[in-house]
Amino acid sequence: MHINLLNYLKATSERVPNNTAVIEGERKISFFELSENAKKMSNIINRVIDGVIRKPIAVLLDKQIETVVSDIAIMYCGNAYMNLDTKTPVQRISNIIELIKPELIITNNKHIHKLNDIWPSDKILNVDQIDLNNETYSQDVLDNRLSKIIDTDPLCIINTSGSTGVPKGVVLNHRSFIDFTEWAIHTTDIGDNEVIGSLSPSVFDIYSFELCMLMALGSTIVIVPEGLAAFPARILQLLQDHHVTYIFWVPTIMVNIANMDLLIRIPLSSLKSVWFAGEVFPTKQFNYWRTQLKQAQFINLYGPIEITLDCTYYIADRQLSDDEPIPIGIACKNTDVFILNEEDKLCGVNEEGELCVRGTSLAMGYYNNPEKTAAAFVQNPLNNSYPETIYRTGDIVLENDRGEIIFKGRKDSIIKHSGYRIELGEIEHVIINTLKLVKNGCVVYSQATKEIIFYYEFDNDISVVDFRSNIGRVLPNYMIPHIYKRLEQLPRNNNGKIDRLKLKELTE
In this predicted structure, what is the pLDDT of residue 447? Predict the structure, then answer.
């Protein structure tokens, strides 16, 4: 029985030591080198943090070989890695590390300046100033430290949008990742020595699962350069050149590839597993992919970040018409999902309600945020006999006649955009309270056009350029509204609150 994910890596590095673990452009690293470098790096980390375990350590690096080494080194230390988005404005990075208070931040020459005024220099480790060739480690010391780690100890922290302007740090543990990895190995077509076309940022949970595949299956991670996001043809060429067998992507880029008919020009004959999650994949474009890649198994996965990776899956094994939604399927092994109506009773077939989740896949909560944790992770209303935590997703779904769960939409102001989960309230908070650009405003999301729209009252003469430049100092690009509409007065409901439903109707 696996206690932590490093049990996988030990077996894999002994089985295929010379196989390539990570490819980054012209650079590559073998499993033996990756394991050795991570162990040496863990020794350096421990000298700085004086043997502290079960605490967060942040990584502020672009997605590269050093990121993988650092994350695994942090595991060897018995701590939890927290990857930070290097494109995020400094103020947002400051908000995150002020809340989480990591023991250490690992970075490099390129990004260290972002920490100059917000974090003490003695708690920063610059990988560009380290020569691992001159480092050693003690396997006995490593083993002794890891013997204190159990499967419910934290593995990583992933930050998600928060309504008050400060992101929430979701804590995920070893056991939940091991559960998902074992489910994937025994349920899907993935196997030993997969070649992964790794597109997701290191701050996504998909990246963390790619690490699991690397450790458990000896998979090779081929890092897709961030700059290729705007050039889907070059991404496909990279996949073809490296004979990629597996991808786990957010649908946005897959839609673009379908719309440009690129799979005709750049066929991917090696690709045999296509997974997607994070947002709705329009069925017309999905059918294009399935038509062009007849050899591949397609799986639609669903799950908020508070559920480790995903809690439901749908293996596309039947034809779907272009106007039929792709089901999110059934629950993964060792996870239970159920649908509750507004009275907290179980919904019947074809009755819409809120999807709720229970099981070891649940996150441990939000780091240093007991109030938010208590509000989101609650007692199962169907069970009054003993403590049983569930997570209420806020997603409206139904179960169809086939026993498949169908996603219908959100019940609150949380959206999924470009694979990121965004609290619309956080955008409003920044514009109105932090930046004070307007006195009253409301952010809505158009599912039809995939655009974030900001409505505000006629009280300030500010240009779209000024809106975007000011917001961009605080929020990442994916959270900046695309459209700004000024109204003399925002619609109000009977309680005097802004009528979001009315604005939503205007949007659609």
Answer: 81
- CATH code for 16-223? 3.40.50.12780
Beta-carbon count within 10 A of 18 CB:
9
Report, as an integer, the average pLDDT of 183-210.
96
Report phi then psi at 457, rounded to 5. Answer: -80, 155
Average pLDDT of the chain, as a whole number: 93
> Is the pLDDT reported for residue 492 higher than 90?
no
Evaluate the CA torsion angle 366, 369, 371, 372 in order and state its sign. Answer: negative
DSSP string, 280-299: ---HHHHHHHHHH-TTSEEE
- The answer to whether 313 touches 300, Cβ cutoff 8 Å, is yes
CATH 3.30.300.30 in the chain is located at 416-507
416-507 CATH fold: GMP Synthetase; Chain A, domain 3 (3.30.300)
Rounded distance, CA 329 to CA 281, Å?
Answer: 14
Distance in angstroms (rounded) separating the CA atoms of residues 177 and 87: 27
In this prediction, what percent of the chain has a pLDDT beyond 90?
Answer: 81
Distance between CA atoms of residues 40 and 115, nearest Å: 25
Whether 360 contacts 180, CB under 8 Å: no
What are the start-end ranges of the E strands in 7-98?
20-24, 27-30, 56-59, 80-83
Q: Please give the C-alpha separations between residue 389 and each of 183, 186, 206, 267, 425, in angstroms, as whole numbers.
A: 22, 27, 24, 46, 26
